Amino acid sequence: MRLTTQNTAIVVDSTADFPEARDRYPNMRVVPLYVRFGEESFRDYVDIDPHTFYTRLRTVSSLPTTSQPTPQDFLAAYEELAGYERIYSLHLSSRLSGTFRSAELAAEEAGGDRVRVVDTETASAAVTMLALAIQRRLRLAAGCSDEEIETLIERYKREAEILFTVDTLEFLAKGGRIGRAKALAGTLLHVKPILTIEEGEIVPVTRVRGRRKALEEFGRRFSEATSDGPGLHVGIAHAEAEGTVEELRAVVAAARPQAEIEIVTTLGAVVGTHAGPGTVGFFWFTDDAS
Q1: Is residue 32 part of a domain?
Q2: How many structural domains does the chain have?
Q3: Are residues 146 and 165 in the same domain?
Q4: Within 13 Å, how many C-alpha atoms sit on residue 19's CB side?
Q5: Which of 19, 124, 172, 219 has the maximal Cβ count within 10 Å?
């Protein structure tokens, strides 16, 4: 079967930080995770937007908690897409959340092999960038095959890059998502950790002093790892750090003027719970499909 936007859908969860997916692409859906303040539960991006979340986060004495969608949440999305013969369901690293397993259970209940559930081994805008890379192939005149998408996914896992910095490791540590970066916890004073995700786990890259040095490190590693060309795709995500977005745009324009910044997004309530305000993420992937 040749896969196209007419017969193939893409599902992501809300940690992809792409709430406008359905509005931009009729064949895409977002399944929200949940964030809870005390006894109040909210669907990420549905019942609580990022600005409201960060405003509330500053006033609470204890951190909110998060939980994955239920299998029924995913099944409802798959059933809503009944007109599509294939669904690629792309999710946050299974080492960071049980979301992938919920999607797997839903796919099993749906039966057959119509739904292909993918552990992207990454997070946030990196998941969205994979979804957009698949979408580019679905939009080709000749469409694409399952094998071509599987090849893309495996290459994406090997080659896509993610760097991020946080104002404090407190949020990652309290949420239990700190991975091998836990060695840095409690040792940083006015020092910015540069982190990445490898094989689905958060790991430290280096540390620098101050946000400006962090952005300079982003730019240096970006320049060393890429070459200029129209196939270079970039993503930027932040947690109420809008000024940093323009600085990163300038970094990209100076280093790789042909690169396309294909997504700029604010981290939603669920990712924001674990990363914390002030977090900045920088993502890139080279993909020549048009």
Answers
A1: yes
A2: 2
A3: no
A4: 17
A5: 124
The DSSP element (H or E) to which 137 belongs, if any, is: helix 125-138
CA-angle at 125, arms to 5 and 141, nearest 5°? 20
Residue 1 in any domain: the answer is: no
Shared domain for 172 and 148, answered yes or no, is: no
Tens digits of per-residue pLDDT, 202-258? Answer: 898 998 888 889 999 999 999 999 999 999 999 999 999 988 999 999 999 999 999
Q: What per-residue confidence (pLDDT) applies to 62? A: 86
Mean pLDDT rounded to a whole number for the chain = 92
248 & 110 share domain:
no
Distances (CA, A) of 161 to 45, 234, 236, 287: 25, 10, 12, 13
DSSP output for 24-66: H-TTEEEE--EEEETTEEEEBTTTB-HHHHHHHHTT-SS--EE
Query: Considering the domain boundaries, does residue 261 fall inside one?
Result: yes
Do you know the residue count of the chain? 290
Q: Is 182 helix (H, G, I), strand (E, B) or coil?
A: helix
State which of 157, 181, 197 marks the end of a domain.
157
Domain boundary among 157, 177, 207: 157
Residue 262: phi, psi to the nearest 5? Answer: -95, -15
Whether pLDDT at 14 is above 70: yes
Residue 242, CA distances (Å) to 10, 236, 249, 279 in order = 29, 10, 11, 11
What distance in Å separates the CA atoms of residue 167 and residue 195, rounded to the nearest whole number? 12
Q: What is the band of 275 on the pLDDT scale with cuts at 50, 70, 90? A: confident
Strands 201-208 and 86-91: unpaired
Q: Report the C-alpha gap between 140 and 121 in whole angstroms.
A: 26
Per the listing, tokens 């129209």 go with 230
Q: 78: part of which helix (H) or strand (E)?
A: helix 71-80
Say if residue 164 is in the same domain as residue 150.
Answer: no
